[in-house]
Amino acid sequence: MAVQNFPDNILYELDNLDVLRGMNSATVDLIATDPPFNTQRNRSGAAGFYVDNWKWGDAGILPDQWAWNEVHPVWLEQIKDDNPALADVIHAARTAHDDGIAAFLCFLSVRLMECNRVLKPTGSIYLHCDHAANGYIRMAMDAIFGPKNFRNEIVWCYSGGGQPKKDFPRKHDTIFRYSKTADYVFNPDDVRVPYDSDYKATMFTGEDTRAPGRTYTRNPKGKVVEDWWRNIPRPYGDKRTNSPDEKPLALYERIVLASSKPGDLVLDPFAGCATTIMAARKHGRRWVGVDRRIDARFHVVCRMAGMKAADAEKIRERPDLADWLNDQLAKYDAHYSTDAPQRTDEGENAAPELGPVYMLSRAQQQPWQRLRHSEMRGILQRAQANTPGTRVVCAGCGRELEEPFMELDHVTPKKDNGENYITNRILLCGPCNGKKKADRTLSGLHRENKRDGWMLDEPKAQSAMAAVRRASARVRDAWNSPDVQDMVAAARGEGARRMELA
Ligand SMILES: C[S@@+](CC[C@H](N)C(=O)[O-])C[C@H]1O[C@@H](n2cnc3c(N)ncnc32)[C@H](O)[C@@H]1O
Questions:
Q1: What is the DSSP-derived secondary structure letter of residue 68?
Q2: Using CA atoms, how far apart are residues 466 and 472, in angstroms rounded to an integer?
Q3: DSSP 389
Q4: Ligand 1 site-directed mutation target among 253, 290, 292, most atoms within 8 Å of CB
Q5: Can you tell me the distance from the alpha carbon of 207 to that of 205, in angstroms, rounded to the nearest whole number?
Q6: pLDDT tens digit string along 174-202?
Q7: pTM of structure
Q8: How many Å lie between the centroid of ligand 1 and the Cα of residue 246?
């Protein structure tokens, strides 16, 4: 039974990765969120205008563009280890589109992997995006939540000014809906809308001529809304609060009503000016919001107090602003924190970080279990050839290749709970790694290679495997010995150089 390790109705003013990583697994009923869209533009938080020149840390500037050199190498390694299909999606985005979109997908994916972990088995996630990245986000979500858990691609249609000279005006956003499992909450009766006025009664009511005995009647409460949502206008004029990204409350109310029950917990890790929070509050759900903006608390409180943008700006000038904000939070029975929660379920749950293969939290790991992807690669390569750049033998087919063509894989597949540590690692050539994927054993790969004629030299493959196993056992059993420490230091240097080149 999952135990919630954070208070109800709390706003965290932090990077959401820290908060998500601190939340116990299976504690959230619904995630409804609207991350930055990778618009490649930057926005001024106060006025909502796009600005051209910005620096990280400029007050009020929300950067919405990503660069490959900002991608944390550890994110990439974790993605490669825990979800090779997702690594392929990111690679494809980088090839088909550009580095920026791949970097954005890395940023989003590490967070979505945590979202998947914190959802309850009956939970769902709705993710709001637009044409800038929606095709790639769909693929990443398939890789994370599983294509069979895809439920809807909702199209939110709106109108407004802006007519490009040579294109159709872009007037819709996309909301991807995934469930955690096949057993998910959905309340169709809570999201019915009136039938259209041009609805032809004869088509759908009365007896079905193709299925005698079956009759159709209209539901007096209306029809369940289709996957294209209209008549929900964008907030404009004095209806807006103080955020350029504000989404309509009615949109998020529909999401909350469709996929959660009263009393359920709703999370928005990219909370902005609290549209999801407001929808959750209005319908008797508990909520958790996260936003890394320094004035996130100000925006959320003003929204809860029903203030319009101009009034909020006046409040900002109060000398006792901090006290006022605290009083308001207490009034709305809400909490605020700049410290991430700490997980308390690591002992009983096999997913302390990202995937089921991390059986121990980082603090519980031995130093050899903390080796990074690039370090393990360097060590195993050295186990076969002492000088970098010499050829390495593939443990799958016995081919000798230059080191950059080798890939790090698992001996026991991850589907069988194979660990990510060096003791369960081998070096394979690209084609063997592609065939082995996350679910095949090494002996299965050997059999397939022999069947399809790819096995070049089985004894050589076996001895490459034996050399790698000897080296990883030594790393585990004699971590402090000079030869192991030399090997680790050399691999670390090479890994850093490889990162620079990438
Ligand atoms: C598109 S806005 C959300 C708008 C929201 N749906 C609303 O209606 O107000 C995205 C928000 O995500 C926040 N954000 C971006 N990266 C973040 C991160 N790593 N952690 C927490 N918040 C983040 C931004 O500060 C911004 O407020």
A1: G
A2: 10
A3: T
A4: 292
A5: 7
A6: 999 999 999 999 999 999 999 887 655 54
A7: 0.72
A8: 10
Q: What is the pLDDT of residues 243-259, one digit of tens each?
A: 668 899 999 999 999 99
Question: Looking at the domain 10-185+227-337, which fold is it?
Answer: Rossmann fold (3.40.50)
Ligand 1 atom closest to 272 (CA):
27
- d(C-alpha 247, C-alpha 276), whole Å: 9
Contact by Cβ (8 Å): 297, 11: yes
Q: Is 45 in the pocket of ligand 1 (CB under 6 A)?
A: no
Q: How many residues does the chain have?
A: 502
Burial zone of 110 (CB within 10 Å; 0-12 exposed, 13-18 middle, 19+ buried): buried
- Closest CA to ligand 1's atom 6: 34
Nearest CA to ligand 1 atom 26: 272
Q: What would you measure as the largest C-alpha separation in the chain, in angstroms?
A: 84
From residue 266, how far is each of 219, 274, 281, 354, 405 by CA, in Å? 29, 12, 9, 21, 45
Domain boundaries, the chain: 10-185+227-337, 362-501
The residue with tokens 């402090």 is 480
